[in-house]
Specification:
Blueprint lengths: L1 H15 L8 H10 L1 H4 L5 E6 L2 E7 H5 L1 H4 L8 H4 L6 H8 L2 H18 L8 H7 L5 H19 L7 H10 L11 H26 E12 L5 E12 L4 E11 L6 H12 L19 E7 L3 H4 L5 H8 L4 E4 L1 H12 L4 H17 L2 H11 L24 H22 L2
Parallel strand pairs: 3-6, 6-7
Antiparallel strand pairs: 1-2, 3-4, 4-5
Helix pairs in contact: 10-12, 13-15, 17-19
Length: 419
Amino acid sequence: MASKRSSSSSGHSQNSKQPKRQVSVGTFKKWQLQQEKEHSTLSWLRCTEQDKFVDTLWCETCRTFEDKICGTKNFSAVWIKGSTNQKLSNVLDHAKSDQHKRSMSVMRIQHAKATKALLIEYAPIARSLLSGPMDQATKEKMGRKFDICYMLAKENLAFRKYSPIHQLERRHGVELGESYMTKDSARSFTKYIAMTQRNEFVNTIQSNLHFFSFLMDGTTDAGNVEDELIGIMGFCKNKAEVGSFVRFFSIQVPTKVNADGLIVCVKQALEPFGIDSVLEKADVLASRPILIGSCTDGASVNIGQRNGMRGKMQRALPWIFWGWCYAHRLELACKDSFTSGLFQGISDMLLRLYYLYSKSPKKLRELAEVVSDLRGVFEFPKSGDTPIRSEGSRWISHNARHCRGLLIAMVRTWLTLNL
């Protein structure tokens, strides 16, 4: 009986064991074809075969550009070494991941450099527009649609406004045609406008830029994630004239907020323009363009001589000039001069008023009853009756403006009461 019981239990355990999922090579090729239109799977989805079945799945672009995407948020080497999860959902999740999108972007940039083609040629709409001759009337219609999308981007309006504006223009008798009337088309047009402007900037930097410096400062987004904003000041020379420009350059997310992490951010910002090698050259005359300076705030991670970004970059580039942002220095000087006296007392009073009414619904209702009589005493936001916060991570001009407004309102009220 014992032997029968043991044999039956062992048989039950063997039947309960799930077999390993195996995908045939034919199914894998079907996945490549089915997802090609949306995710371009033919260019990156690969597998290792074993007895006509898939052993592991891996991504060719992520494996090729591993050194360029290793700093991406939520980076994982599973699809570089080979994933044993043989499910289509796993393939789609990887196709939508940040690291894969960045690897595909790097691949397109490399291909564009090799063929001297513009990135915009990868766009489906652009391919359709370039596939055949276009008459003058069609060009004018498409130009008007691009103008509308450019206005939406400049005015920071949502893409869903594109269709109502499109309909309004047609009601006014403007010829816009019957195609590309949705918000998705507006998103595509705006993307191509940005790509075109970026390509022009890239060509300017790669062909005419001789000397440049960068400005770098940290900020936080709505998710409280540390970002680095990078601006650039460059000096260009062509056959006709010598000119300079100052403009926004890039936004980078550092993996670590230390000197090495910030240097990686600068390198990643310069890489799409093909000038990231300027951080490694030890000879000032070795190449063009030449990095001659940088400007940051006074944080130790930026200006430290030994372990800061300044010290590490100056050891590689001895000629580089490092400037402490004058706006930050002036701000610190003003704050130090206002740490005592009447200004500090008024600032503390405004801060206490803010916390008093922002955290008490009852007091806020009472304040709403008084606001109608004392509307000129305090400055209120347009959205309600809560006093505006004058302290925190703000420039000194913000604090001074509210203190000045309160002083003027108090003087006017005192004069009125004493008449």
